[in-house]
């Protein structure tokens, strides 16, 4: 059976790989962002370096997109323990994180506006667009709520004994800290990759039966010998 026609292997592999690749693309996108590298007053930077903005925004976009299959895989592994909590947290994570992908289009608008008119005026116009209530409540706030959902989903996964407890904290703190160039990028990027990577690698290393939930330990039948035998002597 080919990998594409094997639902268990394909979905497990896709979810695991996405959790490994997503933080790599995220850090690469942060490093390619000319405004984050410069720091301080960034007005006009996107207009001066449109090619770098294009690369950065595209990498960041795909880092969020590829995180979504990983989130679906994490939800899949939350079974028997904390299922309702995992479903709620997973839904919040999925529906929230997808908004960050849409926000990456804003970088292209900043770049174009700063080239089409005086840089300060173009940046101010873009700022006003992002201050619109629709942009704030439909994209920005849900995006950060998605990070909260990702943290809670990771904790549900840890409760289900599929990941170490520190992994979800590393993922979220790393993603938040990576845009602080350069120290935050190095430390935050390493944390994000460690947290997301350990979950992804565990998915890649588990068997298809374990992924499908067919290896759940069964309770010992009544009357079977246990590990603690009474002393009858």
Automatic annotation (TrEMBL):
Keywords: Membrane, Transmembrane, Transmembrane helix. The chain crosses the membrane at residues 56-77, 84-105, 137-160, 172-194. This is DUF4386 family protein.
